[in-house]
Write a structure and sequence with these properties.
Elements lengths: L1 H7 L1 H6 L4 H18 L6 E4 L5 H6 L3 E3 L3 H9 L3 E3 L13 E7 L8 H11 E11 L5 H11 L13 H10 L2 E9 L15 E2 L7 E8 L4
């Protein structure tokens, strides 16, 4: 189970966000997600809430996280966390106005089942927002390379292409409405400059956010 890797390396994983590089990149990712998620009404849920960094920054009240060490960190940030996987969400149908899945899809054992669960617990007028490192981007290649070198977390990542993500969303009953892109600087640098997100999908972006909603024709 992939989440056990995150549990064993929770402190190391979370500590990156407090580095100078981590602070700048995280701020850019938040700004890329915010305009899409905040088009919708609360309550919000983050699937794969991790240590709660995105939830805290974006005002997300609820989270699910299977790794106990990370779930504990998120609770300390005020997030209402349930120990669960994205494939088995412990919530009623149509409970949430907005759902975020940031940097989680590539680590799921069954991405399709997780998206079907997100569809189930999302309100008909709600929105589903994904934050992704897409395959074939410079950053996906960088992290895949680190995975091949034996990095305990990145070796578990299965990066998807834009077309693969769109097909998966379509199969699970979503329609894609919008994209934002950021992180155009190359990976592996020791210093990064803050960038503003660009509306639309840009293939050279290191981080892409996707906004989708329920296809009411389903």
């Amino acid at each position: 189970m992939t989440y056990q890797v995150f549990d064993h390396h929770a402190s190391e994983y979370d500590a990156w966000y407090d580095t100078e590089v981590g602070k700048v990149i995280f701020a850019m990712e938040v700004e890329c997600l915010k305009p899409l998620l905040h088009r919708y009404n609360k309550p919000f849920l983050e699937v794969g809430v991790g240590s709660g960094r995105f939830a805290q920054a974006l005002g997300i009240e609820y989270g699910v996280e299977p790794a106990p060490a990370l779930a504990h960190m998120a609770r300390n940030k005020g997030v209402k966390v349930t120990k669960a996987t994205g494939e088995e969400l412990p919530f009623q149908d149509k409970m949430f106005g907005g759902i975020l899945m940031a940097l989680t899809l590539c680590f799921l054992d069954n991405p399709q089942k997780a998206l079907q669960e997100a569809w189930r617990v999302l309100q008909p007028e709600g929105g589903f927002v994904l934050g992704l490192i897409l395959r074939n981007s410079p950053w996906a290649e960088f992290y895949a390379g680190r995975g091949r070198e034996g990095h305990p977390i990145y070796s578990k990542a299965k990066f998807l292409s834009k077309d693969e993500v769109e097909r998966l969303l379509l199969v699970c009953g979503f329609k894609v409405l919008d994209y934002y892109s950021t992180l155009f600087q190359p990976p592996g640098q020791s210093i990064y400059q803050r960038e503003s997100p660009v509306s639309g999908y840009q293939p050279s972006a290191g981080f892409v956010s996707i906004q989708a909603t329920k296809d009411t024709r389903r």
